[in-house]
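Many introductory courses stop at the sequence. We go one step further.
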Amino acid sequence: MHIVFSCVTSWQVIILKILKLLGFEVFYLHIDTSINQKRRMTIAEKLKKKNIFPLPIEFQKEIFPEASFSLCNIDPNEIAYKKNLEILPENILKKYCSLFSISDQKVKKLRLLVQDFIAFQQMNISGPVGIWARLNSKKKIIYISFQFKCFYNSDTGKNIFKIIIPLNIFKFVKNTFLKFILIFPRKKNIQQKSFEEKNQNYKIDDKKVAFILHKGLIFGSEKYKIYEKTQYYSDDINSPLNKNNILHLDYSDYPKPKGDICWFSIKDIKYSRTSVILKTMLGVLKTFYLVRSWKTFIGWILLINQYFNYEKYSSKIKKFKNLKIAIVDYEALCPKTLIFAFEKNNIKTVATQERFIHTFFNSFVNVTLDTYYACSEFAANYMKKSKYHDIKNIVPIGQYRSDYISLYKQKNIPKEISEARNIGKKIVIFLGYQSPNCWFDSYYETILSWSAQLHFLENALKFSQNLKNTHVILRYKFLDWTNNLFFKDILNRIKNSENISLSDNYSEKYYSYKLCANADLIIAKHTSIADESLSYEIPVLFHEYTHNMKKIASEAFDYSPSGIMCYNFEELLEKSKSILFDNHSKIKDDISVLCKEIYHVQNKGNIKNQLNHKLENIIQLL
């Protein structure tokens, strides 16, 4: 029997120690992320001294496909959706529609709202626990949690027995009481004055277009700038899509970037607490009759909580009186309740598909919008048939960041590529994943663990040693993980090798795109830039294995029959040789055919201009 604690806080340490002393095999999944890193490390080290560790998924000899990464993110067996139906059957869910100002015929929107929450739980909790349960199918797994949200964990293993004691309900009751107290009159809030000042300075009442942002205008960080989110901006100073004319609303409480732009953190916008709380209380009274069992009770709790968020967002959004269109950044992460709030205020919602591979995910990445600009005709047709999307108008337009591949192909060639090419080397870009900073956050990871990272680096080095007439460039989104002493030896070996280097240029904009646009071959852990490169027929092979697992993204989509998925080093090496040195490479031909099928759009290229034109047309019609 294994006892697995969900999220360990300092007061739980003594319980884990006692159970270990009594002879039980005790593990944990996470250490509370709401506390600082130093305190998290202290808890982990205390438990380590008693031989209590996180679930050691990282150190398993072999993780089988049915107990792999796909259980967390891709969910091929739709386990999360089954949980969704279990807590809110269709006939009951329909009765909540009026609460959210949605017609019964649009009940799918609510289904996807619930799906978001359950899928998130599966990705972070029930998925990893399910992997462990399947790896230890003959053992009973006792899962213990003190959080109410764990009632929404999907059933990922028959040998899992859950003990959930929702002690955090007391904190919830306290916060609810405080919110109730706060509905009584108070002094005028400083934030209200701030809103009024901004209204005067930026003429907010004239704004027709809002850019709904997740963590600001840069993907990455100030130190590691991957790309800027400029795809919707118009250079025309009179256009409502000009950067200075757009209303920027950030839903992730991200600070305003430099520059004189109209910017609000949605969290900081004042709203009528009295109105929202009274509406929520009325919603409680109207819908409590729908509670028929324990399962429908937790479904009710979830929707009432989401209803409170919906009303809060609605109250904030209605302040922007002339807003007509909301352009959503990273559609998969934007809260559905915020999308519903825009719809309630007759504001059209628009987004562009961020990642081609998300087309094929079950459970995670559910989209509900008015207009969605898809990566390709293939993706658009697939999503039209999917129960995981509710979109009025899907328009194939292409992968918008692929414009950078076209822009930099045979231009702005990075020095590290030109120098290698000048001595007759073929250029191979290895695109990897970053790893967590702390050892205890690595244990339960499948594709991001320290061991998986080390394996990828060893593969890249071995590749460079086998193909002397190539130069391998390793490229990552971030390099913080390289400060980890665990990787010191392999990084020194790479540094002292002739045919391989670690790219560290993050001061130059879009540098990853410049590398990929001028590569002879890209070998990648699945990432969007690989799809963007493939769309311009730059050869890509996907590194679909780790030290203990095969098949990652291929569980969602395997790019058949191209054969670009590689499940071991030998296969990767042989296919690479064919692409790099065979003038009649079948793989190259297959990639060319594949690209025409899965990435095809009617008007390829200049996607930013196309987006501007289409959005201008929508604005004019509103």
